[in-house]
Design brief:
The protein is 36% helix and 17% strand. It is α/β, with parallel strands linked by helices. It has a single domain, classed as Alpha-Beta Barrel (TIM Barrel), CATH 3.20.20.70. Strands 1, 2, 3, 4, 5, 6, 7, 8, 9, 10 and 11 form an eleven-stranded mixed sheet that branches. Helix 2 packs antiparallel against helix 6, helix 5 packs across helix 6 and helix 10 runs parallel beside helix 11. The two termini are 27 Å apart.
Length: 307
């Protein structure tokens, strides 16, 4: 299956999107924070990102969900900085401290082509929100150079609707988190005002663009939406409300990955309620909600098959 961005490349639309996205860096509103800084002139907002994409690492990754990793791995490119400020971030040296190196569009394109040459099933941009213009600029170069694997947008869910709309026909597979249902934990733990409102609007648009996750004959994802939800201690993620949104506002056919790997990283050890891992009962309770709502596609951890 030919990735959707090839049609945009051939029509010239991809180049026009690059110009539109690049202009957004001059008054940055790439995420709901709407910092308004001129990143092209070296200003930085809440995320800390500048004019150039900054990459921590790129490699074949086998730890994603089965249709993403497949047998040959997902071609992950870990981008530094983040528009969320999660106090429990497990990758905080990358997302908070910005550990990595600035790369040109050509260098980023070369990473994509290298991962394709290594046999990766897709190119998986991890934490891409604040680098969307740089990504599609590099994508145009990579596509002209022979890139033909799907693009995975692996984001935190705190997205600008305008930015997501600009990605229509570019991104084949959206893989957003929906982290919180309620305002208080979203603010306390990630400093993200109106998180659920913004995340649900963005995910609804993603679903409109790409629909239910599709796979080839080998079970490898080619297009569609896969939503991740991390179970937090003491119900702080608001899992029932999140899962009800998916089942009732999107579709019971949507693929959902219910994750149990929370542990108190970064600053979480000093936050009451977040200073412990989740219990088996807390995780099982969320899985019960999945069953109750009739969400039939996805994964629970500890079980490699779809639930």
């Amino acid at each position: 299956m030919t990735p959707s961005y090839i049609a945009l490349l051939e029509s010239g639309e991809l180049g026009r999107r690059v110009e539109t996205a690049r202009a957004m860096l001059a008054d940055c509103r790439l995420c709901p924070r709407e910092c308004g800084v001129n990143r092209l002139e070296g200003e930085t907002g809440t995320c800390g990102a500048g004019a150039a994409a900054r990459v921590s690492s790129h490699n074949s990754h086998h730890g994603e969900e089965p249709p993403i990793s497949g047998s040959r791995g997902s071609g992950t490119i870990f981008l530094t900085h983040c528009n969320l400020k999660c106090s429990f971030c497990q990758n905080y040296p990358i997302s908070h401290l910005g550990n990595g190196s600035d790369v040109s569009p050509g260098e980023l394109a070369a990473m994509m082509l290298s991962l394709q040459t290594r046999g990766c099933h897709n190119i998986n941009f991890v934490t891409p929100t604040h680098y969307m213009p740089q990504i599609i600029e590099a994508l145009e170069i990579a596509a002209r150079g022979g890139l033909r694997v799907p693009l995975v947008y692996n984001c935190g869910g705190y997205e600008s609707l305008d930015a997501v709309r600009l990605l229509e026909g570019i991104v084949d597979i959206y893989m957003p988190d929906i982290k919180y249902a309620d305002e208080e934990p979203a603010m306390k733990l990630s400093r993200a005002p109106r998180y659920f409102e913004h995340a649900t609007a963005a995910v609804t648009e993603m679903y409109r663009q790409v629909g239910t996750l599709q796979m080839d004959d080998d079970g490898i994802a080619t297009r569609g939406l896969l939503i991740r939800h991390l179970v937090l201690p003491a119900g702080l993620a608001g899992s029932r409300k999140v899962l009800e949104f998916i089942a009732r506002k999107l579709s019971k056919d949507v693929f959902v990955s219910v994750m149990e790997q929370y542990f108190p990283a970064h600053l979480a050890c000093g936050i009451p309620g977040m200073d412990r891992g989740i219990t088996a009962g807390e995780y099982a309770g969320v899985v019960d909600i999945v069953d109750e709502l009739g969400l039939e596609n996805g994964w629970i951890q500890g079980d490699p098959s779809a639930y």
